[in-house]
Amino acid sequence: MKRANVIMQPLNWSIIGLGRFGKIHAETVREITGVHLHSACSRNAQTLKSHASDLQLTNTTTDYQDILADRTVDVVSIVTHWKDHFQIAIAALQAGKHVLLEKPMAATLEQCLQIQECSQHSDGKFMVGHICRFDPRYALARESIMSGDIGTICSIHARRNLPTVAGNIRLDKISPLIGDGIHDLDLVMWMLGRRPLSVMAKNVRVHDFKYADISWAMFDFSDPAADHETIAVIETNWALPQNTPTVIDAQMEIVGTAGQISINCGETGLKVQTLKETKYKDTMYWPQVTDQRQTGILKAELEYFAKCIHHDLPINIITAKEAQQAMEIVLLAEESAQCGQLLPISPSG
User: Fold this and answer.
1) 8 Å CB contact between 287 and 293
2) In terms of pTM, does the model score above 0.90?
3) Which of 10, 55, 76, 250 has the greatest count of CB atoms below 10 A from its CB?
4) CB-based contact 52:27 (threshold 8 Å)
5) pLDDT at 7
6) Separation CA 295–CA 14 (nearest Å)
7) Residue 8 DSSP code
8) Beta-bridge partners for 16
9) In angstroms, rounded to a whole number, what is the distance separating the alpha carbons of residues 348 and 227?
């Protein structure tokens, strides 16, 4: 007997925060089977009009409450400024929407905890967009670590650096540690399966922006129960030379007692060299071919969330608690950089 095909109603998906990355979300949503790009919102009316025109999207508003009040909207991507996440996420969860909240989860630990609590009582599913969890390079590295292929981990050095032009766009909005360092902190905790014991961080200011251009943070990930020492260093430098060819200089070196793992996301496999410049093109995260984003890790992330909604599956690749802990500890790293002291980290969060 043939199994009957299950026909799923398309999910109506709305973008709250149709800026640069919100537009990328929208372009990616359009390419997902079983999903319909329904509407979008931005407080900037001019940007909203421009991006909506490119997307051929007519259902737009400058007030996110209009989207939350629309009963036909099933899912929202919240891609606003990170300090606006809390209010919008709480309102969306209370409205019963499925919520994909871009990282970082919120501006404070207290806000993260309140969002996590609210998500547990909402009719909608909730996920924080830690895109690197969906990168097969890091996921395969984690599998090797968990299988014991390189023995016990002794040290990890992660870097996620940007050329000055890209960094300067961000430095009045978010710090390098919170903007990018949180990715690698989350990945290290995911790979090791534990929280660090302490952090010592340092900021270096190169230009006159709200946030310092460079941050390094050293975390003690030693496991007292196993009597083994482990150190992790996270480097975020948004002041690389302007002509640096990479999209983002993201690399990770993991050294164990029986081997080593090297991850290089800076060389994308596609280098375009002209008389004026040399650039690596994005082939992994949200590559665009003509006007379509048919593949990439962002698409995999959004497809996963849509699948969990369609089939009522638990969100387990990145949980709300894990996202909350990543933000909790990166905020401690920022505090360490500001006070110049090593700060202990509680064993549970």
Assistant:
1) yes
2) yes
3) 76
4) no
5) 54
6) 20
7) P
8) 41, 78
9) 19
- CA distance from start to end of the chain: 51
| Residues shown for the chain | 349
Task: Tell me 177's DSSP state.
Answer: I
Query: What are the φ and ψ backbone dihedral angles of 275, each rounded to 5 degrees?
Result: -70, -20
Burial class (CB in 10 A: 0-12, 13-18, 19+), 310: middle
Amino acid found at 54: D
Question: Cβ contacts of residue 90 below 8 Å, gap of 6+?
Answer: 114, 115, 118
- Distance (Å, rounded) from C-alpha 96 to C-alpha 84? 19
pLDDT averages per 10-residue partition of the chain, 349 residues = 55 97 96 96 96 95 98 98 98 98 98 97 97 98 98 98 91 96 98 97 96 98 92 97 90 98 94 91 89 90 97 97 98 97 91
Rounded-to-integer distance, Cα 159 and Cα 234, Å: 6
| Rg of the chain (C-alpha set) | 21
Q: What is the DSSP string of 246-286?
A: -S-EEEEEEEETTEEEEEE-S--S-EEE-SS-EEEPP-SSS
Question: What is the per-residue pLDDT for 5?
Answer: 43
Q: Which residue has the tokens 């009040």?
A: 69
CB 112 within 8 A of CB 327: yes
**Residue reference for tokens 């110049």:** 340
Please list the residues that pair with 255 across neighbouring strands: 155, 260
Q: What is the DSSP-derived secondary structure letter of residue 292?
A: B
Q: With the CA atoms of 85, 91, 97 and 100 taken in that order, what torsion angle do they form, in degrees rounded to the nearest 10? A: 10
Cα separation, 73 vs 97, in Å, equals 7
Q: Distance between CA 278 and CA 280 in Å, rounded?
A: 7
DSSP assignment string, 216-250: EEEEE--BGGGTB--EEEEEEES-B-TT---S-EE
Provide the 10 A C-beta neighbour count for residue 146.
11
Among 184, 77, 72, CA closest to 127: 77
Instruction: Please tell me the predicted confidence (pLDDT) of residue 348.
Output: 81
| Ordered alpha helix ranges (H), 17-152 | 20-29, 45-55, 64-69, 85-94, 109-120, 136-146
